Amino acid sequence: MKKKQGFTLAEVLITLAIIGIVAAITLPSLLVNVNEKAWDAQKKALHARLAQAIGQMNALSGYGTYTEDSSGNATADTAAESFILDALSKVYKINNVCGLDKLSSCGIPSKITTLDAVSEINFPTKMKELNEKLLNGLHYTGEGGDVADTKAAAFETVNGESIAVFYNPLCGSDTTANHYVQNKMCVNFVYDLNGEEGPNQVGKDVGFITAFYNKNPVVVAPAPYSTNYTSTVPQYTENAGTVDAHTVCKTMGEDLRLPDRDELASIFINAPLVNLSENSNFYWSGSVISPGTSGAGWGQHFRYGTRNHSTRSAPNSVQCIKR
């Protein structure tokens, strides 16, 4: 009768080496997937909490003091800090508040990586640094007036998120007419879910939430897809098999869709963080004024900030967002 033999030491060592190699290859990607799912859940919860808090406020404009001299330099600026202390903290639990010179004390990183992972940029500290097109001189019309070049302030949440606040105390209300979105933005939050701990990249642990309109505010938290569609297409077409803005997003990914007009405006407000191309005059949103190919849909100008409704058959670019 043959004696049953076990594995030799060499065979065991070879097997362990193979397991180690496979683990070294697959474990990092598994950890990334776990982290991204956790971040996505945390982002949605943060958006829900901030939207609920802002919905409880009587108004979003007018907090703090902001004055400029004849040269346009701020001589007084307590706007963002006052918004946090006098408004947000009344309806939202906050652990710590930091002024511009102490943003790092609230966990705000000094640099962040853009959505496309191509560029590392300084974390913006003023409204103009967030996006210089917010103060490009073309938007001084309608209710709300100018956009104040206020300095950023920050706070920490009880859940450990670090959030920088860019506040415009002059923001106005919504309109269905063509307009600039700059002075419709009341407050923009740029957050880092885990403070200064990495990767500090937009689309991963870094994102943004924007509140528009002093009256009946709308709070959006779009998650832009890292690749935008550079060819121009109509917003909608009734011709079967013809590519339009909606089918572009479906083709790029089943979990993608067109942003609505406020989500697209939020992406414009934070365009340097997304590193979005200005290859086209307009990007399509999914919002419409009237249906049908001959109807009108909303588009967002990423060079000047205008939001127009134009014929849905007009060709414009597409930036999809995650559902």
Brief write-up:
The protein has 323 residues and is an alpha+beta fold. The chain is 26% helix and 25% strand. It contains six helices and 18 strands.
Please give a structural write-up.
26% of the residues lie in helices and 25% in strands. The chain is an alpha+beta fold. The protein has two domains: 33-220, no CATH class; 229-322, Mannose-Binding Protein A, Chain A, CATH 3.10.100. A six-stranded antiparallel sheet has the order 3-6-7-9-10-11, sandwiched between helices. It is globular. The N and C termini lie far apart (66 Å). Mean pLDDT is 87; it is low at 140-144.
N/C terminus separation: 66 Å
Total beta strands = 18
What is the averaged pLDDT score?
A: 87
Q: Rg, please?
A: 23 Å
Describe the global form.
globular
Strand residue content: 15-25%
Order of helices and strands: HEEHEEEHEEEEEEEHEHHEEEEE
The number of helical runs is 6
| Proportion of residues in helical segments | 25-40%
Spatial strand order of the main sheet: 3-6-7-9-10-11
Count of all domains: 2
Can you tell me the residue ranges where pLDDT is under 50 for at least 5 consecutive residues?
140-144
Q: Could you give a short account of the major beta sheet?
A: 6 strands, antiparallel
Could you say which structural class the secondary elements and strand pairing correspond to? alpha+beta
Provide key terms for this protein.
alpha+beta; four-stranded antiparallel sheet; Mannose-Binding Protein A, Chain A; 2 domains; 323 residues; globular
Question: What is the topological layout?
Answer:
Elements (H helix, E strand, L loop, with lengths): L8 H47 L10 E3 L5 E4 L1 H13 L2 E5 L12 E3 L6 E3 L4 H4 L22 E5 L4 E6 L11 E2 L4 E8 L13 E7 L5 E3 L8 E5 L11 H8 L3 E2 L3 H9 L1 H4 L7 E7 L7 E6 L4 E6 L4 E3 L2 E2 L1
Antiparallel strand pairs: 1-2, 3-6, 4-5, 6-7, 7-9, 8-16, 9-10, 10-11, 12-17, 13-18, 14-15, 15-16
